[in-house]
Design goal:
The protein is globular and about 55 Å long. The chain has helices spanning 2-20, 26-33, 138-146; strands at residues 47-53, 63-67, 75-79, 83-89, 92-99, 103-110, 115-123, 130-136, 149-150, 152-153. Strands 8-7-1-4-9 form a 5-stranded mixed sheet, with helices on one face. A 5-stranded antiparallel sheet has the order 6-5-2-3-10, with no helix packed on it. The longest helix is centred in the first third of the chain and has 19 residues, at 2-20. The protein has a single domain, classed as Immunoglobulin-like (Sandwich). Helix 2 (26-33) crosses helix 3 (138-146). The protein starts with a helix and ends in a 5-residue tail after the last strand. The chain has 3 helices and 10 strands.
């Protein structure tokens, strides 16, 4: 019981400190990514999705990413702390799901040649880290991908 309390206190403290951290201004992010090239470029006939987890909080917990359903064959990969994955999708509407202690979903409409960025946000869970998904602007997405390492890509497209 004491061990569980200590783990919870550590997770809460890290989350609190993370929440207090200020992010750079949009102008600072734009300047930082001005000459940046994405690791995988967009292609003319597909959409490209980057899912980034910029926080190191709960870094040992995998946040698995699924495309359009929550079945094992739909897993596109997973992130741990400060990682990203990418995958190509057919143009149209898609549901991106992220699995940690909970499921988080994001509905996105992707056009051919477009890049969509999603952020896996870490939240405090009961047993392990929870997550939510947030759609990012192009600048913020590039900024977060730029400083993250490649996660585990299970497949580049489905």
């Amino acid at each position: 019981m004491i061990r569980m309390f200590c783990k919870t206190a550590v997770i809460f403290s890290v989350a609190l400190l993370y929440g207090c951290a200020s992010s750079p201004s949009m102008e600072a992010m734009q300047a930082d990514v001005a000459q940046y090239t994405l690791p995988k470029p967009a292609v003319a006939d597909k959409g490209l999705v980057y899912v980034v987890r910029p926080s190191n909080a709960g870094m040992m917990v995998r946040f698995n990413v699924f495309l359009d359903d929550k079945e094992a064959d739909s897993e596109m990969g997973y992130n741990r702390g400060n990682q990203y994955i990418y995958f190509y999708v057919t143009p149209g509407q898609h549901v991106i799901s992220s699995k940690a202690e909970n499921w988080a979903d994001a509905n996105v409409t992707v056009k051919a040649g477009e890049v969509i960025y999603l952020k896996q946000e870490v939240e405090i869970g009961v047993v392990m880290a929870r997550n939510s998904l947030k759609v990012l602007s192009e600048v913020e997405g590039q900024y977060l991908v730029k400083d993250a390492a490649l996660g585990t890509v299970a497949k580049e497209s489905k």
